[in-house]
DNA sequence: GATGAATGAGCTTTCATTCAT
DNA sequence: AATGAATGAAAGCTCATTCAT
């Protein structure tokens, strides 16, 4: 339907703009008027697309989960070794952090930290399901292929995601002396060394 | 001085209470009246001890940095192998997450995520200097002893801290099927495997 | 005209639905979108039938006045004693309160209480003219017949209508232990006793 | 305590002013800023005295109930005939409607009509308990004295209060040709005639 | 006639901070 | 040092009404 498409497109615009603003200024320091102004639309009209600020925040994280999930899915479907997959995941994560920093920032600083906002509807990993699923697939296939040690998934997941998140945090804090790209070798080596058999 | 001591003691009380409240409810959902009520003191009097909410938040993170830094320092001063030190650091981190969850939560969810609050005065790692320093000492001594690979410090730091933070996050999300204690073996193994020569 | 008939029919539908909603939720808690949704029509189209929410409210009270006025007219035209008419009026009022509570509720809680809404166009009793007129006829004929005392009309009117409204209020508050029907005897007796010569 | 007295006095001022404004303009057309301005105080400070607009509304009706209850109590305690008491109650009601019209208006137009506001905490007659109790006492003593017929209390209550409310409504609508005082004789006569044995 | 996106003023409520006492 | 009333800016959200299609 034409109409639905148009409405969905506008929703996407709102998601993009508010994703950027939330990431840059934080959830509580970004107001609905801020977002509306960014989009040159009225405050009231915002509410025709998202019934509340919280719901908007939840739709953003879903968008991100799907976005990153798709990237990972593409990697998972490649016919390459687990070691190469590992590196590619790190590359795409760091690349996203560089080219669309708001996405990783939102994940780390908005979603993970403001749990009260996501309490209803995003319990556990529900709203990042697509993303987590792909990591799970990567891990299980690696184990099946005999490349990765068969350990508790969460232990591996925590290592992988915690590490990557940690590096992006350090970059964000301007504490890293070099660009994230320069850490791809180290990080890949460390992670694969830790996880491999 | 007696007077100064008394004042410092009260400041410490405020730090403890607000640390708990910030961790539990988040920075923006904890009000100064909330904290004052918790301590049975008046709102106005709070400001005799901390000139602003932001300054209070910064003093809390300094307190935490010193608290954790001291724990790590004690480990660094032990005459044990790097591998044993690695494990002990993880143990103390998980133990703190269990016994005083507000401390790790504050670090992860308040300090790391609300950068706007800490922007002035806590740039980079300034306010967690004591803590980071001990990790640095751990790492450098491990390298000097020939146990750890001589890689970029931040790459190692990101792995260590990101991983531990990630595990606590997962625990907080009730996503981990077991207690954190049960992951000490895995995590120790993974980290040491990744960092060792 | 066909067209006009159709339009009038739709207006009637709107009046019915909004009458119910206003009565149930109050004037200010019922929105135009609420009414539109109830009728499965668009908000904008509502305004093709009623130029404003206030005007809609006024048309509703006119509808009610005519509705009740007709009921009373039928009673007035009966060839029965004043005492019997008195009872029949009470019966019809209570019956309406039971079968179409929204009508009496609207009269008592929307019309009488939100005077600012009806200020322009419904001054005094203008918009309930049909209804009041029949009460007036009942009273004057009762006096002429020598059954009712010849007192100030408003004094009698206040007694009659205030009493009935009061009973419906009490019923609405769930304060009455019995159904309204059970009060018909008492109320009839009291009113006739008060008004008769 | 001095402090408590001062706070209570301010609460009373707020009650007085908002009582007037609510009565004059209606509950939904009177804003907190309106009330604050009337009292030359800040909006925020209003909330130091009443946690919400609804709670303010409820405290007002309690105030009114006590106010009117006390008036009735004084009458009930007089050593006069039931007929004289009846008249005195009507007198005080009409006098209040004349001298402090906001009180009766609030009762009729705010309390009775905006049930959603009073739903929680003022179910049934809870918040007008003092007032209703005195009417009950009047009635029961009248019955005991052999002056009033022993009928269902609510039937008598509806007559009494409905009638008085109705007359004040008519006066408010400028529909009464004369002052309320001029109706005291008629109303007293009608009510006593209806209720007496 | 019908649609529903768009407007924007306005509402209730919150809260860091100040200041008279 | 201690109190808590007072401030006032700003937030999230609502809704009658309009208007392009």
Low-confidence blocks of residues of chain A = none
Quaternary structure classification = homotetramer
Q: Label the overall shape of chain A.
A: elongated
Q: What is the fourth-level CATH superfamily of the largest domain in chain A? A: Tetracycline Repressor, domain 2
Largest sheet of chain A: none
Largest interface: A-B, 46 and 47 residues
Percentage of residues in helical conformation of chain A: over 70%
CATH secondary-structure class of the largest domain in chain A: Mainly Alpha
Number of strands of chain A: 0
* Termini separation of chain A: 52 Å
How much strand of chain A?
under 5%
CATH fold description of the largest domain in chain A: Tetracycline Repressor, domain 2
- Tally of individual domains of chain A: 2
Q: Name the average pLDDT of chain A.
A: 95
User: From the alpha-carbon coordinates, what is the Rg of chain A to the nearest angstrom?
Assistant: 18 Å
Task: Provide a quick synopsis of the model.
The structure is a homotetramer of 197-residue chains. With 197 residues, the first copy, chain A, is an all-alpha fold. Chain A has two domains: 1-51, Arc Repressor Mutant, subunit A, CATH 1.10.10; 57-195, Tetracycline Repressor, domain 2 (Orthogonal Bundle).
């Amino acid at each position: 339907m034409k109409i639905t498409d148009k409405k969905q497109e506008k929703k996407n615009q709102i998601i993009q703009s508010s994703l950027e603003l939330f990431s840059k200024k934080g959830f509580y320091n970004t107001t609905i008027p801020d977002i509306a102004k960014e989009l040159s639309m009225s405050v009231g009209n915002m509410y025709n697309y998202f019934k509340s600020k919280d719901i908007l925040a939840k739709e953003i994280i879903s968008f991100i989960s799907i976005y990153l999930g798709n990237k990972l899915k593409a990697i998972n479907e490649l016919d390459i070794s687990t070691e190469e997959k590992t590196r590619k995941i790190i590359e795409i994560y760091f690349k996203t952090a560089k080219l669309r920093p708001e996405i990783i920032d939102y994940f780390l600083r908005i979603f993970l930290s403001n749990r009260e906002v996501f309490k209803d509807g995003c319990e556990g990993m529900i709203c990042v399901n697509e993303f987590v699923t792909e990591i799970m697939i990567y891990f299980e296939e690696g184990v099946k292929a005999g490349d990765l040690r068969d350990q508790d998934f969460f232990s591996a997941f925590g290592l992988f995601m915690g590490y990557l998140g940690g590096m992006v945090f350090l970059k964000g804090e301007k504490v890293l002396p070099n660009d994230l790209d320069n850490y791809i070798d180290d990080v890949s080596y460390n992670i694969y060394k830790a996880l491999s058999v």
